[in-house]
Amino acid sequence: MTAPAVRWFARPAQAAPLGSLRNQLLRWLLGPLIVLVALNTFSLYHDAVEAADMAYDRSLLASTRALAERVSVHDGKVVADVPYVALDSFETDTLGRIYYRVGGLHGETVSGYDDLPAVPPNVPRSELYPALVRFYHATYNGEELRIAALLQPVYDDSMRGIALIQVGETLDARRALSRRILVSTLARQAILVLAVATLVWVAVRLVLRPLMRLKDEFGTRPLSDLSNVDQALVHKEVRPLVATLNGTMARMQNLVASQRRFIADASHQLRTPLTVLKTQAELALRANDPDAMRAIVQSIAGTTDSAVNLANRLLTLARIEHGGQGDMAPVDLPAVARQVGLELALPAVQKDIDLALDAPEPLSVTGQAMMLHELVSNLVDNAIRYTPAGGSVLLAVRAVADGVLLEVTDSGPGIPAAERDKVFTPFYRSGATMEANPNGTGLGLAIVRDIATLHGAHITLAEGDGGPGLKVGVLFAT
Question: Which residues form a coiled coil (predicted)?
Fold first, then answer.
């Protein structure tokens, strides 16, 4: 039998326990959502500020054009006919100040603030408007301005030229509008995030409600309830997990039923020798003849040996049903056979049985050394017990095409073919074996079968070579 495969997915020994599924879902849903909303907020704010700047630039251009309409040529000079009320409206605004300058044909100041910053040489003409206008930022008297510079053709009968009209406004109004846009955008996005978070939280709770019901059902179940869970109660993605749980509970039901049967059979089997011991002890107490008492004590010793043998085999069977002890490793099977042969040589000699070993070379199988020793020991012990005096027992280990074959052949009464499937049932004994050994337990072959199953080996029963008897073969795959 090959070593058990390592699971492809295993929890690390020191891994932190997983947290709440609901919290993880909320984090994975709301985290990216908040990031996307933040990016969207930045984009909306940027677009809104651009639109506001464009609107303010259009208003600034309109003011520049209004001023340009009042620029004309008289007597060869550029003049700006700006009334006092117009000047007052140009110089102040509800949210800031407005400055202007009208430049003549030769750059001289015709009207307005003559120290208004000039147009930088690298400012391109705006492509958004048909007018020859340039927009730029500048600092004037410690204030930041947005200035529109418009080239206005002027002419009369005596001359032609281009006048420069500049109108600048402080950025207070623009900044106030930007702040309002930012606050409004953040408020709307915050409301949106809050609404989506609420909907996601409600949705996650609703989606996880079947899992919570499943948790509650398992949490409130009595320990004896191992019935299946209805897979229709959970989502399709969770049904494989529920199916696995149902399979586990089915195996637990079988294990519990097997343990109950084992306990019932064991208590029944142990009751008989204990009752006999009690009867023998009572007889010994009433006996006055030393020889009779000695015979009773010898009988008590024999019954005690049988009870101890039965208890040991019951413990072995229970240990095998729980997976044996130790990990799988290479084991030299002929060495195990030689060790068992040495341990059981004395009982064989006492019955005048020829115990032989045929294991000429080391042969390795994968398994648990203690369990394999128990398997070989049970087979050889059974063969010695059921072989009459003067008989023979052969223990052989050899390599075959399919693996390593262990065979134990005896010259006892054998097992009828019709009963060979039944003898692996705990406590079952055929008629022939009961006649040959009335004190048997009926557990030897059951133990052998369970150990063989644990190691993935195949067990067969056949008649002895050339006559009555039993040949037990255990084939270990390699």
Answer: none
pLDDT score, position 475: 93
Q: Please report the pLDDT score of residue 397 as a whole number.
A: 92
Q: What is the spatial distance between Cα 323 and Cα 451, in angstroms, rounded to a whole number?
A: 9
Helix (H), strand (E), coil (C) string for the chain: CCCCCCCCCCCCCCCCCCCCHHHHHHHHHHHHHHHHHHHHHHHHHHHHHHHHHHHHHHHHHHHHHHHHCCEEEECCEEEECCCHHHHHHHHEECCEEEEEEEECCCCCEEEECCCCCCCCCCCCCCCCCCCCEEEEEEEECCEEEEEEEEEEEEECCCCEEEEEEEEEEECHHHHHHHHHHHHHHHHHHHHHHHHHHHHHHHHHHHHHHHHHHHHHHHHHCCCCCCCCCCHHHCCHHHHHHHHHHHHHHHHHHHHHHHHHHHHHHHHHHHHHHHHHHHHHHHHHHHCCCHHHHHHHHHHHHHHHHHHHHHHHHHHHHHHHHCCCCCCCEEEEHHHHHHHHHHHCHHHHHHCCCEEEEECCCCCEEEECHHHHHHHHHHHHHHHHHHCCCCCEEEEEEEEECCEEEEEEEECCCCCCHHHCCCCCCCCCCCHHHHHHCCCCCCCHHHHHHHHHHHCCCEEEEEECCCCCCEEEEEEEEC
Give the separation between CA 160 and CA 165, rounded to whole angstroms. 16
Contacts of 1-7 spanning 24+ positions with Cβ under 8 A = 1/328, 1/365, 1/366, 1/367, 1/455, 1/456, 1/457, 1/476, 1/477, 2/366, 2/456, 2/477, 3/328, 3/366, 4/328
Dmax over Cα atoms in the chain, in whole Å? 167
Residue among 27, 67, 252, 29 at smallest CA distance from 147: 67
What domains can you pick out in the chain, each with its CATH number? 17-220 (no CATH), 241-321 (1.10.287.130), 329-477 (3.30.565.10)
Between CA 180 and CA 187, with CA 182 as vertex, the angle to 5 degrees is: 95
Amino acid at 201: W
Neighbours of 107 (CB within 10 A): 8
Check if the beta carbon of residue 476 is closer than 8 Å to that of residue 403: yes
User: Given this model, what pLDDT does residue 373 score?
Assistant: 86
Question: Which regions of the chain are under pLDDT 70?
Answer: 1-19, 83-96, 258, 261-273, 302-303, 305-307, 309-326, 426-444, 466
Confidence (pLDDT) at 5: 40
Long-range contacts of 6-11 (CB under 8 A, 24+ apart): none
